[in-house]
Design a protein that fits this description.
Rossmann fold, GMP Synthetase, Chain A, domain 3, 517 residues, 9-stranded mixed β-sheet, 5-stranded parallel β-sheet
């Protein structure tokens, strides 16, 4: 089975179900399938080599989903691209993946005007409107004109789902390359197979109990692996993706959540902090909402408690994963949130987790070890980066770099990342522990903790803090507060107050940028 067959099977079962709602635009599974088939046929006319990679530089939209499955149906590799990238960063990825054909929205044409003067591999751009800013070395196609030729296919029967001549990708073959930051700060391409993505999708659908009656408000970009998972799980279950790209206007997004009677909302910690601290989120009831999911970094227990206190009738799923694991590794059942405060839960079905010590042996319950992942969702490797790959992929196992311990009931608790353990004066300090502790202060909206060079201790703890609106505090007040909760050596020696924390497009705090500031 390959990625396209997820859509194909769902269309056979629920052809009239609403697949996507994108503002005023709505599309059923049958309509989406027809568009995907037409676009796939067009891609095949380009006569690309069989191992070609095709890029997607589109914002979340029906266009994105159509292009994603059309590339898969045509038998090529999907390369989702971060639409916030500067031209210099974008061209580096285009060169690395050798992308000749690219889907790009008209709104990004100025990015390409700058890129045209660089050494890029693009020969063809497909957009929803004709680019005004063009390059003579690139040919252009109009997405709308291509789809205008769509012919409505006969309803798909279950008997057509096997032995398809046009499905030429085996499950173990490369399906997509997701670019993510490496240890050096340079982008690295995570190679995921059809089997990787489908096995993780199946496991996630199971624990979220998704079905054709579910719908999800999508505020995370599809090029981000968490967003990609949201797309695949809901397409696989026959549910509806409700896309709203206006999260900077939180009230507007909450209106969409209410008006479309959405059953699920997914976000990273910063999304929930904004909703809790800067919107009417907790004043609304959302009668149709069944659950929340959270991943993309640890969420402080104090924030979890605020959500569960405000919405005791909703399920909150705490999840942990990495792009290299397709992405979901563990999940915490909602009914265990109070009993297992701070836990990332248990393994997703089909995923194996071991905690390994520095001696290469598995550590006993209660002791800290590195999370090592096995199973069908572990990546194929890094594209063109064998040195990076050998550091994290050993004998088919993924060494995540995350440190955790397991309790007597089998629940996992993250202690920190290997690279975020601060070594100060002979002490090992978890940046996550200090962040979680600071967030219990009612004046603090967001915080990032990391180590900085120090002449006396080697490394010292630094905290960058964003206060809630209309709150005031100084360095001494914060240090006095945290001394009541943590030993002296964990108290931040340096505290800086900021208006905002720099974020990646996926909403994660960008600590690399903070350290350079």
């Amino acid at each position: 089975m390959n990625l396209f067959q997820i859509l194909e099977k769902t269309t056979a079962l629920f052809p009239a179900n609403r697949a996507v709602i994108y503002y005023d635009n709505k599309i059923t599974y049958q309509e989406l399938y027809d568009n995907v088939s037409t676009l796939s046929d067009y891609i095949l006319t380009l006569q690309l080599p069989k191992d070609s990679r095709i890029g997607i530089f589109l914002e979340n939209s029906i266009d994105y989903i159509t292009a994603y499955f059309a590339i898969s149906k045509a038998g090529y590799t999907i390369v989702p691209l971060d639409t916030s990238l500067h031209p210099e960063k974008l061209v580096t990825i285009l060169q690395d993946s050798d992308i000749a054909v690219l889907f790009a929205h008209f709104k990004f044409q100025r990015t390409f005007k700058k890129l045209y003067d660089m050494n890029h591999p693009i020969t063809h751009i497909i957009s929803e409107k004709d680019f005004k800013l063009k390059s003579p070395s690139i040919s252009y196609s109009d997405f709308r004109n291509i789809l205008g030729t769509v012919q409505k296919t006969e309803a798909i029967s279950k008997t057509t789902l096997t032995n398809r001549d046009d499905v030429n990708k085996a499950p173990h073959e490369l399906a997509a390359i997701f670019y993510t930051s490496g240890s050096t700060g340079e982008a690295k391409g995570v190679m995921l197979s059809h089997k990787n993505l489908i096995s993780n999708t199946v496991g996630t659908v199971a624990y979220l109990k998704l079905s054709e009656i579910d719908s999800l408000l999508v505020i995370l970009p599809f090029y981000y692996i968490y967003g990609n998972s949201l797309m695949l799980t809901h397409i696989a279950s026959g549910g509806t993706l409700v896309i709203d790209n206006r999260f900077m206007y939180a009230e507007t997004v909450l209106d969409t959540l209410e008006n479309e009677k959405v059953t699920g909302l997914s976000g990273v910690p910063s999304n929930f902090l904004i909703l809790l601290n800067k919107s009417t989120f907790t004043d609304r009831k959302f009668p149709y909402l069944r659950y929340f999911t959270q991943a993309g970094g640890a969420m402080a227990p104090s924030v979890i408690n605020r959500i569960t206190d405000a919405f005791p009738d909703k399920e909150l799923y705490i999840m942990y994963g990495q792009t290299e694991a397709s992405p979901r590794i563990t999940w915490l059942p909602p009914d265990k949130i109070q009993d297992k405060v701070g836990s990332i839960g248990v393994e997703v079905s089909g995923v194996e987790v071991k905690l390994m010590g520095e001696d290469g042996n598995e550590v006993p319950d209660g002791e800290v070890g590195e999370i090592v992942v096995g199973g069908d969702s572990v990546m194929l490797g890094y594209w063109n980066q064998p040195d990076e790959e050998k550091d994290v992929l050993k004998n088919g196992k993924l060494f995540t770099g995350d440190l955790a311990k397991r309790d007597e009931d089998g629940y996992l608790f993250i202690v920190g990342r290997k690279k975020e353990i601060i070594k100060s004066g002979g002490n090992r300090i978890s940046a996550k522990e200090v962040e979680d502790t600071l967030l219990t202060n009612s004046k603090i909206h967001e915080v990032a903790v990391f180590g900085v060079n120090d002449d006396i201790f080697g490394e010292a703890v630094k905290a960058v803090i964003v206060l809630r609106e209309r709150e005031k505090a100084d360095e001494k007040e914060i240090q006095k507060y945290i001394r009541t909760l943590l030993p002296e050596y964990k108290v931040p020696r340096y505290i800086h107050f900021a208006d905002i924390l720099p974020k990646t497009q996926a909403g994660k705090v960008d600590k690399k940028a903070l350290k350079k500031a």
